[in-house]
Structures are given as C-alpha cells and as structure tokens.
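To: structure subgroup
Subject: Chain for Friday's discussion

All,

I'm putting the inputs and outputs inline so they're searchable in the archive.
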Amino acid sequence: MSTARKTRVAILISGRGSNMVALLEAAQDPAFPAEIVLVVSNRPEAAGLARAAEAGIPTQAIDHKAFADRAGFDAALDAALRGAEVDLVCLAGFMRILTTDFVASWAGRMLNIHPSLLPLFKGTHTHRQALDAGVRLHGCTVHFVVPELDAGPIVAQAAIPVRQDDDPDSLADRVIVQERRLYPAVLALVAGGRARLDGDRVVIADEAPDSVLFSL
C-alpha cells in the first residue's frame, strides 16, 4: 500500500457548502489522494463552516467586508492558505471575484465548479440562461481558475438532458447531483497526478470512464 503524501486541499465557500460536503465525504476514503485541511468562507455566517467543523475540519472565516479592497482580502486569504501548507484550492460556491495577482499566485493549483457546460452560460443564473437558449443538454464543468471569470482549462464535465417541462429549479436539482459526483472525481484525478495542465489544455492519463466525464 502506498504511503505517498496526500495533496493538501483547502475549500473556499460562501454558503451552505453542498459541493464541499461531497468533497469531504470523498476524502474520508483512505485511498483518496487528497486530504481536506482547511475550509474558508468570506461570510462568517456561512452554514458550510459549521458543517465542516462538525466533520473535524479546521475552518476560518475571513469577512471580505472587513477589508478596504479586494487586494487586502486576497492577501489575508493567501496567508491563511499558505499557513495551512495548502497544495490545491477548490472553489465550491465561493462568490468572490479574485484578483489577478491572487489567481496568478495559485495558477495551476486552483479548481472551480460551474453549473453549466462551459464555455456556455458563464456568470450567474445559468439554469435560466440554458432554458432561454433552448439547449438540449445542460450540466456542470470543473476547470482550472484563470483571471477571466468562468474560463480556464476544462478538466471534466457532466451533462444531463433538458426536459420539456424543466424550470430553473428542476434543472438546478438535477445538475447539483452531477456536481456532487463530478467534483470529487476530478479532485481525485488532479490530486493523484492523473490530470495535468499542458498549456491551455488538460491532459488526463489513463482516460477516466465515460461515466465520470459525461453522464446522462
């Protein structure tokens, strides 16, 4: 059995931490190549902080409203991450736009999950955007973070069919199921060294099963 050091991961949240919980649960498996060492929220009242604490994970609230500008907040966040000796950052419903300098300092070491099949439907209200566009497939994407919002090299995506009677809520309910499956699978790929950046693309060694990358 391998005794290789696990990748040390921090999760950034702003709310209830639904995808955070999926990552925490996956990391409980001794074979999982990552360990969650810190959960940080920019909102002290975020419900996800209590859920992480209940799971025995160190938490920290860094209230963005306590800082005069984004750079000050990002500096405090960076210090917290480095203090915890974090290798990889996972954004999970983190509703802050990070500065270019912060993103550059964590380039290739920060992942985000977005509720659409990027590059379609960036920003917010993605399920309404999908319905308004009349697409037949919708889903979620895990990608490396770059300065441009909801861009960056795509690691993996999961898709669902859009039904005739869907509304934004029903779409959201089905997409979140895929998010909770996809994000842990992608974290395992990246933390385990099976997914790596090659320029602006992601190369996956021993291509993962279709059910991980694309599911109906």
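Points worth raising on Friday:
The chain has two domains: 1-106, 113-216.
Residues 211-216 have pLDDT under 50 and may be disordered.

D.
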